[in-house]
Amino acid sequence: MPTRFDFERAFVDPASGLKHNVRHLLHVLAMRLDRDTFTILPRFQPSFTDLQRDMACDRRTVSRRLDAAERAGWVIRDRPTKHDARAKHARTKYTLRIPESYLEARGIKPESLGAENPWARGKMRPELGAEKPGARGTVPLQSSGHEVSVDGDLDLIIGEIQKRTGRAVGKVTAARVREEILARSAEPVGNTQGYLRTSIRSEPDPGRWLPTPIPPPYREVAARSKEHA
């Protein structure tokens, strides 16, 4: 069974033949995948409005990109009937897959995906690895050619995490989150702040970015126990 990272590395591979805007759509959908089952669980299935928000574009653009991804075999849509959509507010169910046409182009057998995949466990092709700009926390370039302000990135992350969790975090935590998110991208990120914003808003479990409470020292715990003894 492929993993989310197998999927992401596949659709950003030039061999996929996908345009950058379709890759953006697939990335938005991939962030909703369950890490263990390679499925989008019912509670994380996006509405069309969710996709508009996360991709920052209009309905027609979302529809065109979905059509292109489905024609290429990367997405399967299970649409509800008009009656269920209106009466039961049923949503389209999205299933992500790596099409056989891509696997054939790369010389990969479908059953080889997963833990034994040559891309898995860090064994990535050099051009898809973490040494590219934008990975390991390096600062990518905006389309304007100017370096992105790291402080601006951190302020954005702090604000978005507070919106999602109701808790404020510091710049140390924001820097860790920034590095983690940018490391996900196998290609240079053109719009860093847009990528960070979309990643945070689409994360099913934003609490994972909150700092872990530090337990009190043993002596302090022992002293409290004696007080209540």
Q: Keyphrases for this structure?
A:
single chain, 229 residues, mainly alpha, Arc Repressor Mutant, subunit A, two-stranded antiparallel ribbon
The portion of residues assigned to helices is: 40-55%
Radius of gyration: 21 Å
Beta-strand residue percentage? under 5%
For CATH, the homologous superfamily of the largest domain is named as Winged helix-like DNA-binding domain superfamily/Winged helix DNA-binding domain
Tally of DSSP β-strands: 2
CATH structural class of the largest domain: Mainly Alpha
H-E order = HHHHEHEHHHHH
- Structural category is mainly alpha
CATH topology of the largest domain: Arc Repressor Mutant, subunit A
- What is the count of DSSP helices, taking H or I runs of 4+ residues? 10
What's the CATH architecture of the largest domain?
A: Orthogonal Bundle
Q: Give the terminus-to-terminus CA distance.
A: 54 Å
Low-pLDDT stretches: 114-148
Q: Report the average pLDDT across residues.
A: 78
Multimeric state of these chains? single chain
Q: What characteristic shape results from the CA principal axes?
A: globular
Biggest β-sheet: count, sense, barrel? 2 strands, antiparallel
Across the major sheet, the strand order is: 1-2
